[in-house]
Write a structure and sequence with these properties.
By secondary structure, the protein is of the alpha/beta class. It folds into three domains: 122 residues, no CATH class; 97 residues, 3-Layer(aba) Sandwich (Rossmann fold); 193 residues, no CATH class. It contains 14 helices and eleven strands. Strands 2-1-3-4 form a four-stranded parallel β-sheet.
């Protein structure tokens, strides 16, 4: 009963929650690159001045405040887009190509938003010319600004940079040094303490971990970074406490699952750090766009299905007999079971395959009811290879990983060698490749490529049913 007692009043708990929330917010705030946000806003303001000047030279004179809504609205949408893409986070990698790609995306998204708002702001058709000039100048100015900022970040060495000592095995230390250069953290590495006794970092090796206290006394150190595998956490505890007692900032870059290729992220619940490890996945915004595309495509597909069903249903009832639809249990993302629908192409009495069966299989029209699965959210237009639920008990290793992505009507697997469809590790690599390179345009391209693929196979007389390329996978039970 003592465990159920409430040692604090509600007021005390609220104050504690408020303090934890404030501390968490302050910790997160230190990871935001405010300098970059301010630089972007200044560049967008300068862009407006340049745009007004160019407009005066190319077209005619306009008042400075007449189109002031453009930079204000553009800046708000641009900064929000870059912020949600974590481009203002200090830990985000700042490769030049990656940075420029996000700048282009944010500018295009902000431009679309401004174009949508034109009818609500002004009736002047000249506004489009101003907006086009502003967009082009913004892309050029911001891109140049990012390139300059990245070069300055690498070149500037000032007193405001924190002097850090990195502790860990040589492999972990070198990996941390490599990745830290790709971020906007201002850290000056004073030296390293190599735990496995290797001398790969040369003059940066400050000595042994047992002499950490003497090393900290002899060197100017602001923070100590422990880049270590999880197995060394307990051994490093006393050295972490030593650094903490000296008032130094301590960072733990811990590899919890050594040798595993998984995505990871860290956030906090109150003051409790939460480490998340997962396979490749899409963020919330990407999932929203992909789901919106699935719904749109499913509605169009179901309309087409309703039209052709006027002819298909009677043909199935007359030539094939039995039920019009075939229902089978399949697995969706993370092993969720769902019923997959398709037109029946197999006669119940086992008689020879008829014209309707061949037609539905070769044209792929037997798959049309699957648009209902897409609309429900069990499947996606583009996704992984469908997995039959009957083999759920056999899912382990690569097979289990293959269901970390929604099954799709098409995907990268459709354009691979059929013999590779039995290689579960290969299917997993396809899924990861698809997720890492996902974009709205890429999904549209795969859908277009699938349509061309189906039309080409139909012309050559080869079956285009979703199941036709899976019938050899008896381990998945994908036969009709």
């Amino acid at each position: 009963m003592a465990l159920l007692a409430k040692p604090y009043s509600k007021t005390t708990v609220r104050k504690a929650d408020w303090r934890q929330g404030l501390l968490s917010w302050m910790n997160n705030k230190t990871q935001i690159n405010m300098v970059q946000i301010i630089a972007d806003i200044i560049c967008l303001a300068v862009t407006y001045v340049i745009s007004i000047f160019l407009t005066d030279e190319i077209f005619h004179h306009i008042a400075f405040a007449e189109y002031l809504w453009i930079p204000v609205l553009f800046s708000m949408v641009y900064v929000f887009t870059m912020f949600t893409g974590e481009m203002y986070h200090r830990t985000t990698f700042t490769y030049q190509d990656r940075t420029l790609k996000y700048v282009m995306k944010a500018c295009i998204f902000a431009a679309v938003f401004c174009f949508v708002m034109i009818p609500f702001t002004t009736k002047d058709v000249f506004t489009i010319n101003i907006l086009l000039i502003y967009i082009l100048v913004a892309i050029i100015v911001i891109s140049i600004q990012y390139l300059i900022m990245q070069e300055l970040r690498q070149a500037i060495r000032g007193r405001w940079k924190k002097h850090a000592v990195i502790v860990g095995p040589q492999e972990n230390v070198q990996e941390y040094l490599y990745f830290i250069k790709k971020t906007s953290f201002q850290v000056d590495v004073a030296g390293c303490i190599i735990l496995d006794g290797k001398e790969g970092v040369g003059e940066f090796n400050l000595g042994k971990i047992e002499n950490l206290e003497d090393i900290l006394k002899k060197n100017i150190v602001d923070e100590v970074i422990f880049a270590i595998p999880c197995s060394l956490m307990e051994d490093m505890r006393k050295y972490v406490l030593l650094c903490k007692d000296r008032g130094l900032t301590v960072r733990l870059a811990v590899d919890f699952f050594e040798g595993h290729n998984q995505g990871s992220s860290v956030h906090s619940v109150g003051t409790i750090p939460v480490f998340t490890y997962q396979n490749a996945s899409l963020n919330d915004f990407q999932l929203f766009i992909k789901r919106l595309m699935d719904i749109t495509g499913a509605i169009v597909g179901l309309i087409y299905t309703a039209i052709v069903s006027v002819f298909i249903v009677p043909m199935i009832r007359i030539q094939i007999g039995g039920p019009v639809f075939v229902k089978k249990n399949y697995l969706s993302i993370n092993g969720r079971s769902f019923i997959l629908y398709c037109f029946n192409t197999t006669s119940e009495n086992g008689r020879q395959e008829c014209f309707t069966s061949r037609l539905l299989r070769k044209t792929g029209m037997c798959n049309l009811p699957m648009f209902w699965n897409v609309l429900k959210g069990d499947m996606s237009l583009v996704g992984s290879l469908p997995v039959h639920a009957e083999n759920d008990s056999n899912h382990s290793g690569g097979r289990a990983i293959n269901i970390t992505l929604k099954p799709g009507l098409t995907g990268l697997w459709r354009f691979t060698d059929r013999t590779m469809l039995n290689d579960n590790r290969y299917l997993t690599e396809l899924n990861n490749r698809y997720l890492h390179k996902w974009s709205f345009i890429r999904d549209l391209w795969l859908i277009f490529k699938t349509i061309v693929f189906i039309l080409t196979l139909k012309a050559s007389g080869i079956g285009t049913s979703l199941f036709s390329c899976l019938e050899e996978k008896s381990s998945y039970g994908l036969t009709t």
